[in-house]
Amino acid sequence: MTIVMTAMSVTALFAQQSGDKSLGFTGGCSFSDIADVPNTFTAGIEGQCGFFFVNNLKIGIDAIYDFERQNVDNDANYLTHLFGFGPTVSYYVRITDKLYYTPEIIGDFTWGTLYLKQPQTKYSYGRALSKEGNLKGKSISLVPFQIEFHPTERVGITASICAATASYLEYTDDPDEVHHGGYKINFGLNPTVGIVFYLSREKSSM
After folding, report:
1. Beta strand pairing status for 129-143 and 93-94?
2. Considering the chain, what is the average pLDDT of its residues?
């Protein structure tokens, strides 16, 4: 009896067990409006599947779509559409029976398109939306302040307020094929919410 109770108490310390699997979806958006800097709106969604190789340590792969709108002046906007995929690593730290601290590292390879949107007027003869070039790059992000609430054993609701990201993005002009590359490091507010579904490994009959 003592052995059984000890085993149960040890199991309770783990958010998820080795062999468990997960499928999750996350979304978020942010807006910045700083003096002398073009105001920017960003939004993104992410799908992720993961596998617990050991208790509380999840390794997975994600697929993302990000949208960014940046005002260059009162009449024009740059629109960016980015797609990507890459590995993820997260660790679960139990706070209460239903609440966990889940910091995460995400790496992505990305590609997409940059557009310039200008207002149509009765004097304009060109297209209001014109393609400016193609994008490709890579990034790594640290999500240090992420929590997950479990209303049920197999469902988690995630929330995060910020992220630190280092990225490299290459820009190719059309049709000149001129390459421009740039590095960027950013740490700031990036609120997201999501839902995660968990699947346990099949229990042995032994």
Report:
1. unpaired
2. 82
Phi–psi pair at 67, nearest 5 degrees = -125, 135
| Tokens at 123, concatenated | 């004097």
CATH of 15-199, one of 3.90.180.10, 2.30.30.60, 3.40.190.10, 2.40.160.20: 2.40.160.20
Count of other CB atoms within 10 angstroms of residue 147: 17
Can you give the pTM of this predicted structure? 0.79
Q: Which residues pair with 47 in a beta bridge?
A: 25, 63
pLDDT above 90 for 196:
yes
DSSP per-residue codes, 111-162? EEEEEEE----TT--S-SEEEEEEEEEEEEEEE-SEEEEEEETTEEEEEEEE
Place of tokens 């999500």: 143
